[in-house]
Design brief:
- The chain is α/β, with parallel strands linked by helices and 353 residues long.
- Helices cover 29% and strands 23% of the residues.
- The strands form two sheets. Strands 1, 10, 11, 12, 13, 14, 15, 16 and 17 form a nine-stranded mixed β-sheet that branches. Strands 2-9-8-7-6-5-4-3 form an eight-stranded parallel β-sheet.
- It is elongated, with a radius of gyration of 21 Å.
């Protein structure tokens, strides 16, 4: 065990983390859905091992850099859930990865699929066709998935199936509707591939907010990420209760100027994400009505909703709005167990490409 670092630092409640991992694995097993968690949330080999040890079939990543780090730490089944535009350098990196792990990448256009095939075939890199289920960020139309898959197959790549991210589940009262959109889009895309004579081994979806509403009659693989930690967004959306939140930023009260509480955990520790529905820049775990109402690089000003101000020099636990963004700002996670702390490195921090 190690002496606690200077605040602000990210603290992980290991009991809650393990419980979140176990519950997700049990849910997936009960519903006969493969679990492929998104590791961009934690970027940590230690947490990846917990997920894989609990039955995850592999891991999802956002970038080749994340995949490379996790492969070096023994993770041997990785899906880059991103419509990669493969150039010569990316092709070299993917070939290297394929020597150490089973690798799949996302594609969402005929052009992208054909290019990936030209640069990667006949190497053992598979593709999964991304479809847009309502977020309108990436992904082809569901009825166009067959054309994209055929282009990949003709270019010499094995097509694994289809995937989507129901990102519009990150909206008040949007979780069930997004899951229904996800099922319709994936069902249409799956059928398009089958009509074009292609086998569909995987129908992949899932987000933490919509996961409870996932249609296991359509979706065969789920890729939630935030569930391991939770954050203020999940708290506000009702997707995770405060007693499940495993990641906080330990902060020190540094000022009572103006009769307010100011902490040393600014945007460089918490991240600067704030969704339109969010009621603040973060929340305090032990003060449910409190909100961070002002955020700068090194300061967070808290409205305690009438509660007494914590003494200057005391410490509080802040729940970041978006745990993935906060983790990417930290070199390490300080894991609390048996009353002490130990450090887990954020090994894939900054590997954004």
């Amino acid at each position: 065990m190690t002496v606690a670092p200077t605040t602000p630092y990210l603290r992980v409640d290991l009991d809650r983390l393990r419980r979140n991992v176990r519950r997700a694995a049990e849910w997936a097993a009960t519903h006969r859905v493969a679990l492929r968690p998104h590791a961009k949330t934690h970027k940590s080999p230690e947490i990846a091992r917990l997920q894989l040890g609990s039955g995850a079939v592999g891991l999802t990543v956002a970038t080749l850099g994340e995949a490379e780090v996790l492969a070096r730490h023994g993770c041997d089944d990785l899906f880059v859930a991103y419509p990669l535009w493969v150039d010569e350098r990316a092709a070299d990196r993917l070939r290297d990865l394929a020597e150490r792990a089973t690798v799949a990448i996302g594609v969402d256009s005929v052009e992208g699929a054909a290019r990936a095939g030209r640069l990667l075939a006949p190497f053992a890199v598979e593709v999964v066709v991304e479809v847009d289920s309502g977020q309108h960020r990436t992904g082809c139309r569901p009825d166009e998935a067959g054309a994209v898959a055929v282009a990949a197959a003709r270019a010499g790549l094995r097509v694994r199936g289809v995937f989507t991210f129901p990102g519009h589940s990150y909206a008040p009262d949007g979780r069930a509707a997004a899951a229904a959109d996800e099922a319709r889009a994936l069902g249409t895309a799956r059928d398009a591939l089958v009509r074009d004579g292609l086998e569909v081994a995987v129908v992949s979806g899932g987000s933490t907010p919509s996961w409870a509403h996932l249609d296991a009659g359509v979706v065969t693989e789920a890729r939630p990420g935030v569930y391991v930690f939770g954050d203020a967004q999940q708290w506000e959306l009702g997707a995770m209760p405060p007693e499940s939140l495993a990641l906080t930023c330990r902060a020190t009260v540094v000022s009572h100027a103006g009769g307010r509480t100011t902490l040393d955990s600014g945007s460089k520790a918490l991240g600067a994400d704030r969704a339109a529905y969010a009621t603040g820049w973060g929340r305090l775990l032990d003060h449910p009505e409190a909100r961070i109402v002002q955020l700068s690089e090194h300061h967070a000003v808290v409205d305690l909703a009438g509660e007494p101000l914590p003494p200057v020099g005391s410490q509080v636990d802040v729940v970041p709005n978006h745990c993935c963004a906060a983790v990417n700002l930290a070199d390490g996670l300080w894991v609390e167990e048996y009353g002490g702390l130990r450090r887990w490195p954020v090994a894939a921090r900054g590997r954004n490409g």
